[in-house]
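[User] At your convenience, examine this fold.
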Amino acid sequence: MLQIDILTVLPELLGGTLEYSIVGRARAKQLVGIGVHNLRDYTHDKRRTVDDYAYGPDAGMVLKPEPIFEAVEHLAESGVYDEIIYTAPDGELLTQELATELSLKKRLLILCGHYKGVDQRVRDNLVTREVSIGDYILSGGELAAAVIVDTVVRLLPGALGDATSALSDSFQEGLVAPPAYTRPENFRGWLVPEILRSGNFPAIAKWQHEESLRLTRLRRPELLEAYERRLSASGQE
């Protein structure tokens, strides 16, 4: 079972988010254990202080190193973490490839950034990986942590109702997913493509791959370039 611990100053933001849909079902099946921990529980003053003013002229508060180190060291007593992830806007971009890599781990800890971030000594001496979900700024790292958890948990064996479903997701092979259709076959005169109704599975697979290439070229050309480079490197052109 994968264990994911999340360290945050706002645990309330994560409660309902991690209790429903695929993540909730995976927890019920004991495919993943998720612990949400309040950073303020590792402070020792009456105000439960977790932040302080930044050195220098910049405005804003910075998360202090003491409660973070104490919290991580306490949680690590139950087992060493494979990765200690910090949700940072300047971290490596969360991709399907990274999510797949993280889904193979046994223990993950996610530290949610907040305010102006964390003391650099945390990043230098404690964090093993910094992850961003996009080039924009959130009020805190809780939503980013929830996104990371969702992308990772849905890849765990048994998390999805159909074990093959994740294989056709966008980005799983570096391409955008092909169009998807369901019943009715004819809706307001718009028909499901004949090839999908043919029962010819090799032909359907070929059509889906061609559509993935077409849509990737149209919507995410940089992904297509990377995909073609990988094919060239592996000699599969």
Observations:
- Residues 201-219 form the longest helix (19 residues).
- Strands lie at 2-8, 32-38, 51-53, 61-63, 83-93, 107-111, 129-132, 186-187, 190-191.
- The helical segments are 21-28, 65-75, 96-103, 120-125, 142-153, 201-219, 221-234.
